[in-house]
Specification:
Layout: H1 2-7, H2 21-31, H3 47-52, H4 67-82, H5 89-107, H6 110-116, H7 123-142, H8 151-167, H9 171-174, H10 177-195, H11 199-209, H12 218-236, H13 240-245
Helix pairs in contact: 5-7, 5-8, 7-8, 7-12, 10-11, 11-12
Length: 257
């Protein structure tokens, strides 16, 4: 089989073929030929000796592998993926990202936000509340790697993708996506500046975007600032396991703040 021929190229996998060597010997003797597989491990080393060998394909290896070893490793990884022995990390991250977004929809009491901050029960109000919580998720996601190709950046894109997928529910809203997208990008920049600065800067960002510059009750703005600070702190304290692998986000209720 193709996978068997590929596995024979790797020192760490040769021991897996040990039971097949006696059969190969019998075939050689009966057909009077020499098969290439017989050079794999005729004199088998003890298991302890095999374990003591340096494995070039482990994540803990400190050595530098050659281009040939790297190419062979990629071939083996593709073979193991085909037979379902290697989990697809990107698929797992995508699922986790959608679960994180769903935690916003499931655990956020939108009606409480509408009532406490005098917001009309409209799609725009729903989007403002969702946008704020998604931004907080993006902050935590980027802590897992902000560069292109890293887990954090990939999760950020998947969370945003889930938000837009949930937002586009009618043809009328689809026409607003471009405008909402521009507003969303501007909100992210303003919120990022606010979270890295003092409360006055964050309050200004929330007043401009969340309250649409239409709130004269400073107590409400102060309450929302406190809510954001506590939620960001809670997310920052989550381990990689709790956030990325098995998402468990204990969002705090606005009523408790």
């Amino acid at each position: 089989m193709l996978s068997t021929r590929l596995l024979t190229k790797f020192n760490g996998c040769k021991s897996l073929l040990k039971p097949a060597v006696p059969s190969i010997d019998r075939i050689e003797k009966s057909l009077n030929i020499s098969l290439p597989y017989t050079s794999i491990e005729r004199n088998h080393k003890p298991f302890a000796a095999l374990c003591a060998q340096r494995c070039q394909y482990c994540s803990t290896t400190a050595g530098v592998t050659s281009k040939t070893d790297e190419a062979e490793g990629n071939i083996l990884k593709r073979v193991l993926n085909k037979v379902g022995l290697v989990p697809n990390l990107r698929t797992r991250l995508r699922v986790s990202s959608h679960l994180l977004y769903e935690s916003v929809a499931d655990k956020t009491n939108y009606l409480t936000f509408f009532q406490e901050f005098d917001m009309p029960n409209t799609f725009n109000s729903w989007f403002l509340v969702t946008e704020l919580h998604v931004w907080m998720l993006l902050l935590r996601a980027m802590a897992e790697g902000p560069e292109s190709g890293e887990d954090g950046r990939f999760m950020r894109n998947c969370i945003v993708e889930a938000m837009w997928g949930d937002s586009v529910s009618s043809s009328r809203i689809r026409q607003q996506i471009e405008e909402l997208s521009e507003q969303f990008q501007a909100a992210l920049i303003a919120y990022d500046e606010g979270i890295m600065s003092e409360d006055r800067v964050l309050a200004t960002a929330l007043w401009r975007r969340f309250f649409a510059m239409n709130c004269e009750d400073y107590n409400k703005i102060e309450r929302l600032v406190k809510y954001v600070r506590l939620q960001v702190l809670m997310l920052d304290q989550l381990s990689r396991e709790e956030f990325l692998v098995k998402p468990k986000v204990p969002w705090k209720n606005l009523d408790q703040i």
